[in-house]
């Protein structure tokens, strides 16, 4: 399974084309729209989110609510485009002294793709870089992830992402009764946090950052339950599922780190307190008594919940200026902006959930006979039986 995305932040629309989804799987626009709206929520977003109300159009690959096996094209229009038709227009500009040309960006913002992208592609107007490097693109990554989530859900695999840290405020480890409960509580939290006290402190930290013209980052965690054991592989580096999950998390805008299970904590503990003991019960088959390795051993699923965490750095578009250099004059200047998000960690949690969903669904489609959804479902059930009775 694969997908590409296209679209600029202030262009007419964002597009994704998904290939390899099994045929005969139920899929409707609402499955995708509900995920798009989850990504748009969250305390700390800037004014742009008031302009956009993301809604998908399914323009191919689905008929009468079922996938066809052909490429699925998903389109989300940018409402803001109407204010940018001049600056972002596709046709050549006749008048080189026009407002659109004069508004060229020659001042790279520290922490963004601006300068490196301009050097790489030879753009003297860095709008040509920032329009595509913008995290607006994550809208259609969530759309693709929503289709993957639907596939997983129909196979009995559920995922939830939540926020465990923002701006140094950590959620206390609290046991949740079920994934369903974690979902319900975090969905109602403006910062997507299970711990209400930490959630309140996170919001205060976001307010502080905003007041100081600053931004803050955090840590998100994705938990997936129901994956059968033995998905992924140990036989080749590029078939290891943990490697694919790590790459997926690291590909999200502003993510600088990833952990699976106890992650970096494993460096500080002896082996006896890292590895999970194996047990067996008639009903359940094999399981681990703990899940410190986050559901993955040897690049494959163990059948235990998959636990992946990602670190998002603070958004680099700051009201509080950082020093940079104008690429035309080579003069130093203080980078300042018109609008930004003080914190996008709650939204990034939904993106993380989407990219993890994509990798899990993709690993399943790769490994089992997946041209048809009904045969895929039967193969997954058989895999679960085999793993239990092994
Ligand atoms: C973003 C900058 C802001 C964010 C945007 C990501 O947009 P603008 O430049 O229009 O104010 O709002 O995020 C989204 C539009 C979105 O849908 O998440 C950036 O530079 O990455």
UniProtKB/TrEMBL annotation:
Matches recorded under HAMAP family: Chorismate_synth
One GO MF term: FMN binding
Family, per entry: Belongs to the chorismate synthase family.
Catalytic activity: 5-O-(1-carboxyvinyl)-3-phosphoshikimate = chorismate + phosphate
Sequence positions that bind NADP(+): 39, 45
Gene Ontology, cellular component aspect: cytosol
Keyword tags: Amino-acid biosynthesis, Aromatic amino acid biosynthesis, FAD, Flavoprotein, FMN, Lyase, NADP
Name this polypeptide is given: Chorismate synthase
Binding site for FMN: 132-134, 253-254, 298, 313-317, 339
Coiled-coil region list: none
Listed EC numbers: 4.2.3.5
Superkingdom to which the source organism belongs: Bacteria
Record text on subunit structure and interactions: Homotetramer.
Gene that encodes the chain: aroC
């Amino acid at each position: 399974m694969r997908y590409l995305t296209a679209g600029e932040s202030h262009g007419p629309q964002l597009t994704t084309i998904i290939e390899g989804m099994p045929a005969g799987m139920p899929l409707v626009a609402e499955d995708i729209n509900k995920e798009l709206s989850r990504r748009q929520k969250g305390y700390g977003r800037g004014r742009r989110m008031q302009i956009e109300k993301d809604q998908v159009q399914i323009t191919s690959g689905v008929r009468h609510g079922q996938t066809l096996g052909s490429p699925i094209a998903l389109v989300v229009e940018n409402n803001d485009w109407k204010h940018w038709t001049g600056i972002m227009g596709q046709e050549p500009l006749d008048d080189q002294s026009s407002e659109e040309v004069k508004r060229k960006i020659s001042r790279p913002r520290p922490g963004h793709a601006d300068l490196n992208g301009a050097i790489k592609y030879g753009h003297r107007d860095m709008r040509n870089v920032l329009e595509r490097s913008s995290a607006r693109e994550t809208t259609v990554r969530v759309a693709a992830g929503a289709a993957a989530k639907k596939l997983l859900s129909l196979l009995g695999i559920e995922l939830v992402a939540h926020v465990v840290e923002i701006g140094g405020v950590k959620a206390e480890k609290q046991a949740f009764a079920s994934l369903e409960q974690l979902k319900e509580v975090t969905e109602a939290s403006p910062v997507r946090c299970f711990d209400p006290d930490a959630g309140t402190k996170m919001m205060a930290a976001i307010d502080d950052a905003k007041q100081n013209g600053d931004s803050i980052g955090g840590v998100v965690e994705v938990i997936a339950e129901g994956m059968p054991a033995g998905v992924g592989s140990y036989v080749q580096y590029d078939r290891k599922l943990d490697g694919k999950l790590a790459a997926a998390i690291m590909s999200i805008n502003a993510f600088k780190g990833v952990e699976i299970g106890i992650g970096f904590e494993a460096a500080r503990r002896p082996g006896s307190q890292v590895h999970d003991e194996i047990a067996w019960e008639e009903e359940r088959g094999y399981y681990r008594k703990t899940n410190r390795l986050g559901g993955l051993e040897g690049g494959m699923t163990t059948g235990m919940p998959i636990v992946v965490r990602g670190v998002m750095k603070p958004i680099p578009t700051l009201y509080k200026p950082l020093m940079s250099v104008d690429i035309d004059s080579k003069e130093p200047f203080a980078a300042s902006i018109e609008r930004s998000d003080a914190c996008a960690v709650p939204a990034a949690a939904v993106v993380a959930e989407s990219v993890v969903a994509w990798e899990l669904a993709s690993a399943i489609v790769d490994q089992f006979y997946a041209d048809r959804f009904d045969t895929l479902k039967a193969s997954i059930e058989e895999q679960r039986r085999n793993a239990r009775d092994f």
